[in-house]
Write a structure and sequence with these properties.
This protein has 356 residues and is of the alpha+beta class. Helix content is 44%, strand content 16%. β8 and β9 form a beta hairpin. It is globular. It starts with a helix and ends with a helix. The relative contact order is 0.14. The model has no long low-confidence stretch (mean pLDDT 94).
Length: 356
């Protein structure tokens, strides 16, 4: 059995949030199994919180060299991920993405989703296409269908990459988004792993960066369902080990990975909007880092995410950029010494953002 403190510190240690590390950007992206990137800026803050002397140009270079891509992968969400991992992960979760888009973006009678996807593939094939042009093309061909639904069908039906300069640190933020087909952008190829082998790899990758975790936690993060039998098989095969959580949770972890003692010092961290240590977590797993009521106070109606303030390893507030300065809003009582530490970290983040 592990305590809540051990569960918390283990997560922070694996996420490089107990101490910033001197490691390559791609290594940290791999540990985090990608980073949510529908807003171009959060990945930079997420890496700043984890890497000592993080240089945003390192991220830009990987994006421009096509070693990492911004594309729709887990849960139908735009993530930054290793390009070749993105290929097999997207293929693995494609059926779930297809089901979600049918539910959320049904097309009117007479509009065939396959025809929409085929038309978009033909238009984008071989070159990057501005999103505005693609919207216009689809809207003109299927005027009875909402353009937003047509675009959702295309984003979910094709593995598209949002190409630079959009998404780079050097970008002004006003660059028009443009799409390319993944195979055009990084070269054609097949998924490195498929089927249950791919599911096993994804489970292992998640636990390496976020474990120990419950089956519900793995499924919520990945968007997959029906993983219990596979997790049990991996446990029987000594790939995983079962651990009792602090409140009787049934947790799983990679065999051989260490568990923190629970009394390690956890410095203040300002983590990015949409960061996966809080977002995309099952409620029973999120308890290791956030009290349910506090996290609920951060959820907005429009789905936007604030940045999160961790004090002693747990959610204590949110932050936002206002006039190029970091403003902190506390959600719980924080002592004077810890507030000074938050202020210092906010000043460092303000300087980082101002350097753009």
């Amino acid at each position: 059995m592990i305590s809540l403190e051990q569960w918390n510190r283990t997560l922070l240690a694996r996420q490089h949030l107990l101490a910033r590390i001197d490691e390559d950007v791609i290594e940290v992206l791999d540990r985090c199994v990608g980073m949510q990137a529908q807003d171009p800026r959060p990945p930079f803050v997420a890496l700043w919180a984890r890497i000592d002397r993080f240089d945003p140009v390192d991220y830009d270079d990987l994006l421009l060299e096509r070693e990492i891509v911004r594309s729709v992968v887990l849960r139908g969400t735009l993530l930054t991920m290793d390009a070749h991992d993105a290929r097999w992960v997207r293929a693995l979760v494609q059926p779930r993405i297809d089901a979600a888009v049918r539910r959320s973006h049904p097309l009117p009678g007479g509009v065939d989703a396959r025809a929409v996807v085929d038309a978009a593939r033909e238009a984008i094939d071989g070159a990057a296409m501005p999103v505005r042009e693609l919207r216009d093309l689809l809207g003109q061909r299927w005027p009875t269908a909402p353009v937003a639904d047509l675009m959702a069908v295309v984003r979910c039906g094709l593995h598209l990459v949002q190409v630079p300069p959009r998404g780079t640190w050097r970008s002004s933020g006003s660059d028009e988004p443009a799409y390319a087909l993944l195979d055009d952008w990084i070269g054609p190829g097949e998924p490195a792993v498929i089927g249950d082998e791919a599911r096993r790899d994804l489970i292992s990758m998640y636990l390496r960066g976020f474990g120990p975790a419950s089956i519900a936690g793995i499924q919520t993060w990945s968007g997959l369902t029906g993983l219990r039998s596979l997790v049990q098989q991996m446990t029987d095969d000594w790939e995983l080990t079962r651990i009792d959580g602090p409140n009787g949770e049934e947790l799983y972890d990679l065999e051989g990975l260490s568990i923190s003692a629970g009394d390690e010092s956890a410095p203040v961290r300002l983590i990015a909007p949409f960061d996966h240590i809080l977002v995309a977590q099952a409620p029973a797993d999120r308890i290791r880092i956030a009290d349910p009521g506090l996290y609920a106070a951060t959820v907005t109606r429009n789905g936007r995410s604030p940045g999160f303030v961790l004090v002693d390893g747990r959610l204590a507030g949110t932050w936002r950029i206002a006039d190029r300065s970091v403003d902190v809003d506390y959600l719980t009582d924080v002592g004077p010494a810890q507030r000074r530490e938050v202020d210092q970290e906010a000043q460092r983040l303000t300087a980082f953002v101002a350097a753009q």
